[in-house]
Amino acid sequence: MCRATVVIADRHPVVLHGLANVLGSEPDFEIIASCGDAANCIAAILDFAPDIAIIDAAMTELVEMLNESLDRLEDPSTRLVFFAASENYDLVSSGLPARHSVLLREMTGQALLQCLREVLHGATVVPGAPTDQVALREQSASAENAFPVLTERERQIIRLVSRGLSNKEIGRRLNIADGTIKVHLHQIFQKLEVGNRTALAALRIP
Question: Where do the CATH 3.40.50.2300 domains begin and end in the chain?
Fold first, then answer.
């Protein structure tokens, strides 16, 4: 079995220990670096290019360094997963890189593992994303009814979102500014009545 390589970074040793215990008990994950500070985490990501980097969202200095080095760190082989407390999610989420997943510290070990496996398969996981399959199908069906009102540009953007591209990457592909992408996404969310990129990526655009 091929094992997914993981770098973990958190200010709290007990959290690092807990993540190591949960992931270490699974045959498909291998922790290759455990970091308590920003510099070591950045170095580990650059040196090892792990499949996943699990990062304490409250380590503001690390988030700032990631934003500054985003072009180097957003290698397709590395997925950024931020670990956040639910009460701090709204506060920290605005400063996170565009292409990321967020997992809550309150989740169970099994839920954590399931989400990480979804991330490995290309999903973007965020709090509030619909996990009930019936609800997801109903939301998708409602959104698909609105497809005729989409412009061709909006369809292009949705297809690129579904492939996991960030706003910056989409802008480069389509040769338009990041701000224009944000405006298009706002209009798309309103037209399709979806609340986040995960729900948008689940749709099948004709």
Answer: 4-120
Q: Half-sphere exposure (CA, 13 Å, Cβ side) for 204?
A: 3
pLDDT tens across 149-204, in order?
A: 788 888 888 888 877 778 888 888 899 888 888 888 888 888 777 767 766 766 66
Structural tokens at position 206: 């004709």
Question: How is residue 144 written in tokens?
Answer: 């698909």
φ/ψ region of 165 (left if φ > 0, alpha if ψ in -120 to 50, else beta) reads beta
Q: Are 20 and 34 in contact (CB under 8 A)?
A: yes
Residues 197 and 126 sit within 8 Å (Cβ to Cβ): yes
CA distance linking residue 75 with residue 97, whole number of Å: 13
We find that the CATH architecture of domain 4-120 is 3-Layer(aba) Sandwich (3.40)
DSSP 102: E
Length of the chain: 206
Choose which CATH entry (1.10.10.10, 3.40.50.720, 3.40.50.300, 3.30.1300.10) describes domain 133-201: 1.10.10.10
Residue 140 host element (H or E): helix 133-144
pTM for the full predicted model = 0.59
Q: Using one digit for the tens of pLDDT, what is the confidence trace for 36-68?
A: 998 899 899 888 989 999 998 888 788 777 766
Beta bridge partners of 4: 29
Task: Report the mean per-residue pLDDT for the chain.
Answer: 77
Structure token pair of residue 100: 């990321």
